[in-house]
Amino acid sequence: MDHDGLENLTNEVIGCSSCGFGFLFQLLDDYYPAPGTGFVVCGRDRRILAVGRGVFELTGYDEPDLLGAEVMSALGLEAPRGKDPAGLVLEWGVRQLDQPLRIRTRAGATKEIKGDFFPAYDEDGGLLLALAPR
Questions:
Q1: Which among 131, 115, 134, 112 is positioned nearest to 37, based on CA atoms?
Q2: pLDDT reading at 6 higher than 70
Q3: Global confidence as pTM
């Protein structure tokens, strides 16, 4: 990604300038994450592909601890009334914002958080979670 504005604008796919890897999610203009929000990127099968720094601060888990695991069970995410916002987003391709969740930290504590779930609109599908304290 062009973080410093020093690279030229091209028609190339957005990605890391050294390895070419990248994710592309359309968050739209009306989304502003709260301070301390942690991002989790998942594939179509809900397995974790990458996590942002805010996830460690929220849960105590480092990226290597979570990679390849199913997101809802790995983070101990529970939605009220048995809802499955990740499944809904993947099935219908719609975003789910301000979802009340409980998360289990690495230390075993339970926290009340909110989650924003975004579908990936590329061929591979997938899911982006934005997890923030309530």
A1: 131
A2: no
A3: 0.78
